[in-house]
Amino acid sequence: MGKWVYLHLLQYAVFQTTLYLNIPGSYFDLCYRDERKKEKPQSVGYFQLFRFATWKDTVMMVVGGLCALVHGAASPLMLLVYGMMTDTFVAYEREVQELKDPNKECNNNTICWINGSIYETAENNTVRCGVDIEAQMTMFAYYYVGIGLGVLIVSYFQIVFWVSAAARQIQKIRKTYFRRIMQMEIGWFDCNSVGELNTRISDDINNINNAMADQVSFFIERLSTFVFGFMVGFIGGWKLTLVVIAVSPLIGLAAGLMAMAVGRLTGRELKAYAKAGAVADEVLSSIRTVAAFGGEEKESERYDRNLVEAQNFGVKKGTVIGVFQGYLWCIIFFCFALAFWYGSKLVIDTKELSPGSLIQVFFGVLMAAMNLGQASPCLEAFASGRAAAKIIFDTIDREPEIDCFSEKGRKLDKVKGDIEFHNVTFFYPSRPEVKILNDLSMQIKAGETTAFVGPSGSGKSTTIQLIQRFYDPKGGMVTLDGHDIRTLNIQWLRSLIGIVEQEPVLFATTIAENIRFGRPGVTMEDIIQAAKEANAYNFIMDLPQKFDTMVGEGGGQMSGGQKQRIAIARALIRNPRILLLDMATSALDNESEAVVQEALDKVRMGRTTISIAHRLSTIRNADVIIGFDHGQAVEKGTHSELIERQGVYFTLVTLQNEGPSNTTNALEDFVLKARSFSRGSSGSRRRYNEHVTPAPVARILKYNQSEWPYMLVGSLGAALNGSVNPIYAVLFSQILGTFAIPDLNEQREQINGICVLFCIVAVISFFSQFLQGFAFAKSGELLTRRLRKVGFQAMLRQEIGWFDDPRNSPGALTTRLATDASMVKGATGSQIGMIVSSLTNIGASFIIAFYFSWKLTLVIMCFLPLIGLSGVFQAKMLTGFENEDKKAMEVAGQVSSEALANIRTIAGLAKESSFVESYEQKLELPYKSGKKRAKIYGLCFGFAQCVIFMAYAASFRYGGHLVSSEGLSYMLVFRVISAVVISGTALGRASSFTPDYAKAKTAAAQFFKLLDRVPKISMSHTDGEKWDNFRGEIQFLNCKFTYPTRPDIQVLNDLVVSVKPGQTLAFVGSSGCGKSTSVQLLERFYDPDEGQVLIDGRPSQSVNVPFLRSQIGIVSQEPVLFDCSIAENIQYGNNTCSVSMEEIIESSKKAYLHDFVMTLPDKYETQVGAQGSQLSRGQKQRIAIARAIVRNPKILLLDEATSALDTESEKTVQSALDEARKGRTCIVIAHRLSTIQTADIIAVMSQGAVIEQGTHDDLMAKKGAYYKLVKTGAPIS
């Protein structure tokens, strides 16, 4: 099969290299990444991957391997046919040339003179004749068809056997792995995150699959081609083979050097981008500070500075690739010249080779080298498979410390329920340095209710986990009725225990099924009974589907109280001897608490019950109360006894009773809100992939406008590169043609001429490759930088509410900046070069082909779609299958991730085995589709492999016909066929870029969506009004406000309050009442939903935002500092002009900061570290105050500016603040009332409205809310 294929394979190889270098995440990046991970990941031996193979799998793999071996030998075999065919053509052409002389004729297969004497050439050789070209060509066509069919069959089996064998083994690995994970003790889960385990189940096992499936067969096939290719070469002519081999190290060397250079540069480029990314991340994380101080311009400049460096490395990388690629092509063409020159010597002078065997040798060696190159990506798949297998198999081979599936251990006949701890010492395996239980001894009597109380972290919940035997104590023992629980059967032990937790876990199924989880094989009556006992029956019957209502993922459709009662029903249906209540009511509101508490009191009767609670009201009536502190039981007795002892319990009770009755509730409600909020956000994160219509390319190119000279030069280079291959086809066929020239001297001259042309082409292609590489790298990198900068500016333009959306978290935004911009490069930059060169290649090839023989061209063109389509079809099939597979695996993945996320609940219910069964059942579908897929994939692959053989059979047979009937020169047959096949590969290459191109368009669309978004609050310097004598009078008129991300929670409710210029207004109130929110409205981070904020009598919506913010200085509780020097942080206060050193010192003196700074070695140049981490809180706070003073603002906002400080620094900071307040309108939010007694107006807020306001003395006289707060001295939040 000719050089065409070899040539196209060759191009494919070089093109693969280019592809590798241009696609991020490709082979070279991988090489580079491995360099970074110097510590080598351990891996298992390759054949250990197959440890789960049955004899049937082994047979399939062996047969598949043999098929691959035969398939690999097909191409070299084809070369033999090809060589013979060339010789036939040459002989026929000779005969035609000789018989042009009317004095010669063909007689007995030898050319004779008409007078009968035999014709001899100058070397006294006779010339043979009588070649029946049609018959010969028919025979060759049959050979081709035969090889093609053989290939179809063996390649089909090669794929089917390997893929199905792999599917069977992977199925087994998945099952074994999941079962083993579910067997592990809880301590193991503490050390392995659930997310990591989920990715292992999916990605790592897929990696093992890649190392076991079709990649192996490709590897065998390529190696076999490598061996047979060299064999064909050496058999045909060993001298030429050695010459060609001698040149090949040059190519290898170039590829190696290129890989190294590109790896180095990519590394540096990534480092530079990482720096820019860090800037972006820092800015977006502290967007409120940036906005408050108007630092947007400054930040985008800083970001851009870091991009420049990355851009330069990118351009260098493109240039290096261009140079090396030019070098590669250059060497290849020199190699052609050398081989043909030396080969022609062997044909003409020493007669060692025939023209056919010259071709056979040359392409045999080329083909062998290429296939060796193509076998290397397989090695990479094997390596990652082995590394993944190491982790998976280690887990499979690990013996769990507490095996929940084991049948070992005693089952007691009768259980009383006495639990005793004997000198138990314990620490969690994930944190061995923290002792949780310290020599704990206590006993819990059967049938009594025992309550555990104590500060959090004192080991209460840990004891419960030890009773369930989630962990074994590190010292001492836990006994049940006098038996060490380590000697009891674990499933049986857990079946005695019912547990209700603070955050009960429900599974994504119906209510009835959730209750049934408590005990297998219960009737509906039992379920209803349990629901009644748990006070759940009534609310369940009110639901439309009653017991068949789905509770949603993690029970998300149910309220806290409902979930809690379903969990209690689930615990009760076990009819447990021991009931563990871990803060079972703490997460509920008062109403549901009463109901749940009542349910719990009903079911405690006659069982050993252990209750942990934070609300002491719920445990007053326990039989025994045990007080914990630092992992020891420090006191024990009834409520009244412990009150008298005045120990741990007494402290907790007094704390709870003294604080205003609702503080604990408020606190817990707040925690609950925060919890539900964090849960809500994960839901919205999933919705990120909305559908975006791809952006038009024209608009992308517009951003690249200023680089048009680069793009023009690059396109020129690309066009030259594209035309190199068709020129090659012409030169090559020309060489074959010269062998038929009768005059040997003329032959030599022609061949030397052609070899010189090859050298010229080599030099040209060196320069054009370099041009293309450099020019497009330059324009692409400039575009990426420009897009990143524009994107970053667009982000900084958005209003603050936009950043609250979890989809726009700093992490997500920085990733978008990094990936979207570099993906857009996929539609411009080097891709344009690829497209241009493919197009010129196709154009030139077709012009050549049609010019020399349009008939033959049309015949070959019939096969082009098949060749092109088979490739596209194969890619489509595979991606299609992958998607189907992903979908099917997702269902199984849901089971596994639900199981792993709720492993404690499952272990407590002893339900591991039912999850394992469910998972194995869900795996059946992907497994079946995998087996079906193997067959279809095999067919496609076989078809793709054999189509090219068929194309050769038809086109050479028809070429033979044209040669004999129309006198077409055989040289032109070769020329046309090679030209068309080359254009075919170029077509394929062009089509392989469509996915990148489509990605680029969608990424661009995402990007433009960001650029086109109109912020709700305009940041422009021109919108809105400004005025000169800004006084700083503020009024809030009936403001109502909800945060855009939580529209159901009303934060401000008709807020009315005003402050005159120069006055100080203080807000007090519990947390969540809207104090900080009012400050954010004033800064115009948000606008009120109803009502107005008036500034100097003008509504805030009509005021120019940068102007307004420039009049306000803010000091918040946790001030945000940037990762630069102290001076630069203070200068940040005024971004409109450059701040002189005098001003900095002036303001830091006012902030009581100057003396401290002067003690530092670098004084004002001291770096503060990321987020100011090098400084103490008081120091950071004073820098923030200095930064606010530098602005010389008319309005000063102090948001709990001293709450986080110790008393010493608080005094210093407080005096700094009092200094700063002079002559300014000031709004203070404080938690310590002592700090605000001097304020002109104190406003007490509750639930988004002001309930009372006045001076300190007025309010004290009123004896209202403020008075109570001052008297109790309680912290307000």
TrEMBL record:
Q: Coiled coil where?
A: none
Is Cell membrane one of the keywords? yes
MF terms per GO, please? ABC-type oligopeptide transporter activity; ATP binding; ATP hydrolysis activity
Q: Where is the ABC transporter domain?
A: 419-655, 1034-1272
Q: Where does the ABC transmembrane type-1 domain lie?
A: 62-384, 712-999
Q: Which SMART domains does the entry mention?
A: AAA (SM00382)
Q: Return the GO cellular component terms, semicolon-separated.
A: mitochondrial inner membrane; plasma membrane
Q: Which CDD domains match?
A: ABC_6TM_Pgp_ABCB1_D1_like, ABC_6TM_Pgp_ABCB1_D2_like, ABC_MTABC3_MDL1_MDL2
Q: List the PROSITE patterns.
A: ABC_TM1F, ABC_TRANSPORTER_1, ABC_TRANSPORTER_2
The protein here is known as ATP-binding cassette, sub-family B (MDR/TAP), member 11a
The UniProt transmembrane annotation reads 12-32, 59-85, 141-165, 219-236, 242-262, 326-344, 708-731, 751-777, 832-852, 936-955, 967-987
Specify where it is mainly localized: membrane
Q: What does the record say about its membrane topology?
A: Multi-pass membrane protein
Keyword Endoplasmic reticulum in annotation? no
Please state where this protein is localized: Cell membrane
Q: Which PANTHER family match?
A: ATP-DEPENDENT PERMEASE MDL1, MITOCHONDRIAL, BILE SALT EXPORT PUMP
**Keywords in UniProt for this one?**
ATP-binding, Cell membrane, Glycoprotein, Membrane, Nucleotide-binding, Repeat, Translocase, Transmembrane, Transmembrane helix, Transport
Kindly state a single biological-process term from the GO annotations of this entry: oligopeptide export from mitochondrion
Q: Which Pfam families match?
A: ABC_membrane (PF00664), ABC_tran (PF00005)
Family according to the record: Belongs to the ABC transporter superfamily. ABCB family. Multidrug resistance exporter (TC 3.A.1.201) subfamily.
